[in-house]
Queue: 3 jobs
Job 1
Amino acid sequence: MKWNLPVRSPRHRAAALARQSVLTKPTGALGALEDVAVWLADIQQVDRPSADSATVIVFASDHPVSTLGVSAYPREVTPMMVVNLAMGGAAASVLARLNKVPLHVVDVGVEPYPEPEPADHSQWTRLERRGLVGNLRDSDAMDTEALSYALQAGADAVDELPEGTDLLILGEMGIGNTTPASALGARLLNCSADEMVGPGTGVSGEALVAKRELVARALERTEDCVEPLDVLRSLGGREIAAIVGAIGRSAERGIGVLVDGFIVSSAALVAVTLDARLRDFLWFGHRSAEPGHARILDALDAVPLVDAGLRLGEGSGALTALPLVRSAVALHNEMATFEQASVPNRDQ
């Protein structure tokens, strides 16, 4: 699977690097903030990047595997949290308001629940359920119809973003979804279940052992599955597939993606395995406390902006990192150069 990505001129990246070298600071003194500004200039194909028009999309889905004891919370929490997100009470909702970022909740496969009344600056969309889903251990996570529909749902959600959107944060909601994320990571990175599976919502002891055994059985069941989309269909989930579709469409539109934690990173791993060019459009917001996230980050050569032990999901980690991205842009655009400030450069 390939996406129709825009042709990028190297001029803007070169210009951003040149500007960083003459701002009133030692070269490299702002660390990753310099790199983020240069990245956005390259993705947006401008000399002065922007992160003012950011948006967060949270994709939500149930997982049949959640009935097998892989989570500390019952699957009924998923629809309740969808309502909470839409109505402004979830962590991602609070952080979106704090950062003045619109939040769009897209239900791609959640069991029925009362229609919420979205809070200001929030949207909620419930899509038709298509195809069949399974519990990973005994049957594939999705059939072909469910996979195709979810991928397209992700692309469609990005298509609805207004022109001028300059940064996209992707989040997810789905009780049990660290299990498919672990299975995806293990298959695509050739790791064992023990190396990828972590506590998720807080399982430990025998429950954690059982979760690892379930993922190991899912990997055994799909041992001949190697093509990335087939891996996603067999071991993923509808919200993860939607995120893959959203990443691809964002790249096609020249929109940079600020990646959240373990679940979204598992989708990013699928997307980049499908088309390595997509890696250029991703910056990683935070490092999750989930052990498998470190392996995915290493595989994608990613150094996240925030490492604060977060493991909530919803896009909350990336939203926490957003002020750093905006700081990076402001510093790049507004700092004086040595010449403007009449300050001697070290080479002078």
Job 2
Amino acid sequence: MRRSRPSGRHPGHAMGWRGLAAALVFALAASGPAAAQSLNLTGGGGDVPIEIFADDGIEWQQDNLVFLAKGNARAVRGGVTLLADQLTAFYAEKSDGTTDIYRLDADGKVRIKSANQTASAAKAVYDVTREILVLSGGTPKLVTSDTVITASEQLEYWEKRQMAVARGKAVAVRDDRRIKADVLAAFFKQARGGETKVYRVDAYDNVAVLTDQDRAFGGRGVYSVESGIATLTGSVRIERGKNELRGCKAEVNLNTGISKLFSCPGGRTEGVLQPRRDETN
């Protein structure tokens, strides 16, 4: 993340894409092992530098401490590629004469690709120090090897915590299973083959768990991918066809299709079951 302090002070300096690549390759190099399987382009360490290319060249705004790459901009580091209409790298000068890149912005048709994950949005911001990627604009989307997560407001990728947070009409889709909520938090782990997979999803406010047969609703939900069980709390409602059950807690097994409903303390569960009628009767 460091480079030598530039000599001289100028309001800005324009150079072709070859000059841009050379400047940012040196500026964004870091120490430690690179995290090739994640979407974290600038964090995670590694001596592998970032190479940046742009059709319309670059501006080096030395007074503003900014590098600006325009026109089909592309940043590549290890197994991660970032594509956007424009890339902006912000750096800070240190007292020892070095500089640190602390933020990288991507604007316009943003796409981020790694070995087994992709993300897209209209805008992306990397917080290099905290190793957090924030996607916003359009419909932010994160695609892993087994799950697709979307949001209407923003989607955050927290590298150190190995989690993604989707805000605003958030949806997580896995096979025929769909989890909706105002906010979703998905937690990842690496499988034996190196793939990054979701092992748990926490859902907050206006939660809905939907399959081809059942619909379950609640105020809070926790879905364990390995067990296939979604636990819902807070004014829970389970629907299948015209049948409906109500209670305070439910365990919905999405693998077996069996649901358990629990009553509120001192209360009871309620249900409306519609009998099947023979069409000739």
Job 3
Amino acid sequence: MNHHWFNEPISAPDAATLTAARERQTQLTKPPGSLGRLEELGITLAAMQNTQHPRVEHIWITVFAGDHGVVAEGVSAFPQVVTAEMVRNFARGGAAISVLAQEWGARLEVVNVGTVEPMEDLPGVMHHRIGPGTANFVHEPAMTVDQLQEALAAGCHAADRAAIDGAHLFIGGEMGIGNTTSATAVACSLLNRPAAHLAGSGTGLDTVGVQRKALVIERALAKQRSDQPLEALQRLGGFEIAALTGAYLRCGQLGLPALVDGFITTVAALVAVRLRPELAAWLFYAHCSAEQGHRRLLEALEVQPLLDLGMRLGEGSGAAVAVPVLRAAAALHARMATFAEAGVSSA
């Protein structure tokens, strides 16, 4: 890829700060290990932010929206028009992610990377429409190489905006009828798994619907399968999935921690980490979704999600729900007293 941003390095979180953070955790007024995973999260956030006073106050959320040609194969319980209708719902503040963003004081933007119909101007919605949805990948690649570049760049720009705004944490979300089918196809391609292992109910398909979806994915894989991350993304992905991949890569380059949401965003993270393994150090995983393939994806990435609440909405909603866990970890690391400060006897 010749886009200059794409090959910029991704540095590791600061090693000296990491060591000091580990040491600090042993001095805090509590039995060692008693805060469980919150301790490791605090240590990680300290190293990422290069300070013993990490903060997760300013949250930036970008939801990427796009349509999918594969919807023509009958893989969704909802009609395609819902993608654009939900973009309007985001703009009006009526969606789950809108409510949570308001609740946590987070900055929410929506980027239309490819609804079938062009959309009117809406508050909080940016237009970066790469095409009228992707092509039906059962018959042809989902997008051209140029469209892939453009989608990755849309994600890069979102992460840039977050960093310029001083965000402590980036959350990517997605909206697109048919996008669990697309994400499953990409994951099957990269993990070399059959569609039946990873295909789930998405918007609420019944058993027969899930089986049909798996068959559609297998037909696509027979033509489009690739173990190369960018090739799999171009042939089987969605504009919003590619944008998420670009956003995560850029977060790593900028040293901006990112909180990965559910199944679809985790597929984007898988592509990004396969491209740049060093990115893994900058990603947190919010929750294990009820979408059946998600647990297998998390296992393949060897990561532990923060929550498991049976959610499967998308939009970045699961990541938003996990925000207070990271806030708690940062605050405890930064503000608890040490034994010496408190005049408490240690063990």
